Amino acid sequence: MKKSKNKAIIAVIVIFALAFAVAAGIVIFKLVNGALASGDYEKIAGSYASDITATTESGGSQPVSQQSSQQSSEGNTVLADNPVNLSELSAQNPDIYSWIYISNTNVNYPVAQSAEDDNFYLDHDIYKGYSFPGTIYSQSCNKRDYTDRVTVLYGHNMLDGSMFATLHYFSDPQFFEENKYIYIYTKDRKLTYEVVSAYIYDDRHIMNSFNFLDDKVYAEWQEEALNPRSVSSNVRKDITLTKDDKMLVLSTCLNGGGDGRYLVQGVLVNNEQTR
Amino acid sequence: MKKLIASAAAAMIMALSVVPAFAISVNSPVATTQAETQPTTTNVKKDDNPVSPKTGADSVAAYSAIALTALACGAGTLFAAKKAKK
Q1: Inter-residue contact A163 to A134 (CB < 8 Å)
Q2: Which domains, from first to last, does chain A contain?
Q3: What mean pLDDT value characterizes chain A?
Q4: A121 and A137 Cβ atoms separated by less than 8 Å
Q5: Distance between CA atoms of A153 and A136, rounded to whole angstroms?
Q6: Do B66 and A23 touch (CB under 8 A)?
Q7: How far is A8 from chain B (nearest CA, A)?
Q8: Is the pLDDT of residue A63 over 70?
Q9: Which of A67, A123, A202, A236 has fewest C-beta within 10 Å?
């Protein structure tokens, strides 16, 4: 009787030990996969967008106007530099169509949109292999040329600070004040978005929940962006939004779990052709 | 005889409909109904979920499992050790 009781206890301990091993294995796998992916993205940025920091920050801090074409003193159109070799990247994977960069964050990544599955890049890298951090991506409800009223980009909130984790820097009022712009490079354009607000929102799917073609709905969304109900929000006060504005929403999960999403919203203030 | 007249009339109507001047006056559904343009079909697996994609990296479930199983193993081992002493 005593022996069988001991055997039962040992069996329970073994079962828990196995469960422990499985859970630990999952965590280790995710950490290793995440670390490898971070290294890969650094290499990709080094290979395809090596001068992005210098190029963007030297010429991109003074937005002119939408659809702008800056004129030189001779009257010729001055084209902006494009530091991203998107042609080569999209030759490897046609799903890659733009690049996102935000100063003083780790956000410096290619942006993809799958032609097969809207959420493919949630857990796949740009080479279409499994990757826990995935890729920064948009869904097929958004056009690839950022001409929709609202374009949403998704990225993981990685523990190592990669992907969209450093968007949470915008919850610091000083950082929010000092870092005004989000930059998007397409093959032939440089789009500059001024950060309007950063706040915690609920977990509803933005593009599936709002019909932004409706002026009233779009106006309400913009009103929400300027006056978020979230307690920990930061808003740029001197911005007014109109129905002609194009907005970019960057979405990631919250620190410490929870059902909400952390959103950083920008409005297009400069749309330059690149050489 | 009737069949012959009917087939001759049918042949005449068909022949006349080829002439544009007559064809215009004939309300042919083929000629007047505009073909509906089909939306271009793509094979994208659409995300029609009302909830935004989960972009969290916190393995809350896995970490909880680690903590719970470690606790259970520890408690079980202590219990077994105490029993063995007795």
Answers
A1: yes
A2: 2-273 (2.40.260.10)
A3: 89
A4: yes
A5: 7
A6: yes
A7: 10
A8: no
A9: A67
